[in-house]
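Feature request, filed as a ticket because there's no other form

It would be nice if the structure record came with a short human-readable summary line next to the tokens. Right now we just get the raw output. Example of a typical job, pasted below so the devs can see what we mean:
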Amino acid sequence: MKTKKLLPYTLAFIIAGCIPVWSLHPLYDDKHLVFDEKLLGVFEANDTSWEFAHSNDPNAYQLTYTTASKDDPNILKGFFDVHLVKLDNNFFLDVYPKEAPWGDNEGLNLIKWPMNSFLLMPVHTFIKVEIFESKLKIRLTEDDTFKKLLKADPNAVKYELVDDKPVLTASTQQLQSFVIKFADSNQFFSDEQILMRKTSKTANDVNEPKTATKDINNTHRDSNSLSPERKATAK
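Raw output as currently delivered:
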């Protein structure tokens, strides 16, 4: 297959500079698929932003992942389908590339290749997650760490080597058993990050106008800028 035909499947981000573990099959099935409203919203850490929104699929989320490189002021984005999976008492995200980050091939020359050249296959990646009102605690998979696990236990899970990269080939049920076994181990989910929920300013912010009134010319004005006489008139 030509590279151009593979491009729409490109995963447009690297989390924390690490290449995640890939899987040919999803982690979710109908039995273990859940939806939590608390996951909706924008969460941030360092120069990254994770925006979870409703998807066309009522059991899935649409994720927009945005990162700004310190070496390049251009903002880079990736778009993904995300499913929330509950296995025992643990929650996981199944992340799948939704579309090319440039929208169509006409914008191909505008892409910063270092952010878009890692996944040239339609593959799944998994993230362990704890969901709170104010934050997300996530634990990520990392390719090199996974290689160490396989070296210690080559039969831990079914996989194939593709250009020296292990790609999970296990079925969904086999993946679930494997993930449950290593859910609390650093051997698979090895990189922990905290994402804080982005909150908007409230109406009570001292830097924001408290009320807006109209003067005699029907022009909106901040009540803090009115004289005492005008405030009385405005009432």
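Something like this underneath would help us a lot:
The first strand starts at residue 22 and ends at 23.
Helices lie at 3-6, 143-152, 172-181, 228-234.
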